Amino acid sequence: MSIQEIRLFGDPVLLTPAALVVDFDKELRKLVADLTETMLEAPGAGLAAPQIGVPLRVFTWHVDDVLGHLINPILTLGDEIEEGEEGCLSFPELRYDTKRALTAVARGFNMFGEPVVIEGTEFLARALQHETDHLDGILFIDRLSPEDRKLAMKEIRESEWFNAQAVSGISPAIKTSPHSLFGRNL
After folding, report:
1. How far is CA 163 from CA 111, 158, 175, in A?
2. Is residue 186 a part of any domain in this protein?
3. Do you know which Pfam families this protein is assigned to (predicted)?
4. Which domain, by its residues, includes 59?
5. Does a structural domain hold residue 51?
6. Per-residue pLDDT tens listing for the chain (186 residues)
């Protein structure tokens, strides 16, 4: 297990849909361990593999003192929507109200390839949706209202962490996921 660097907004890996996991092997178990350790150290409520530069459909979560992971998730969302504050480890200190389904059922696999079903409400449902979005190359700012998105982009452009990427040679792309072009808000 080792703590990995969390990729920040501007890194293309965050905008790329992740590949299905096909090998449930020792390397996958190490990835789950690294994700978990990195998430806990950050600290965060969830972390997806693309956020540490690995383009695979894997994420971990830590909600209500319960740790978990899910591989190749498929979500079924409830009809009721709630608005709540959301942040992301790839956007340090950025928090905005985001609309999400109040309930979510996630089906996938554990690190040993065994089927898993996770039923989440409220914050766990929000975390399952947020992390699955990462696996699809969708960022939480893509879920903001147009007004909040403008404010968020201004805040990002003025942030120390975003500008530090440019100084260190990483070209921080202002563009977001291609999905944002279609106004994909819940």
Report:
1. 37, 7, 15
2. no
3. Pep_deformylase (PF01327)
4. 12-167
5. yes
6. 688 999 999 899 999 999 999 999 999 999 999 999 999 998 899 999 999 999 999 999 999 989 999 999 999 999 999 999 999 999 998 999 999 999 999 999 999 999 999 999 999 999 999 999 999 999 999 999 999 999 999 999 888 888 776 555 544 443 333 333 222 222
* Within-domain flag for 138: yes
Residue at 173 is within a domain: no
> Pick the catalytic residue: 93, 119, 131, 155?
131
**Could you confirm whether 131 is annotated as catalytic?**
yes
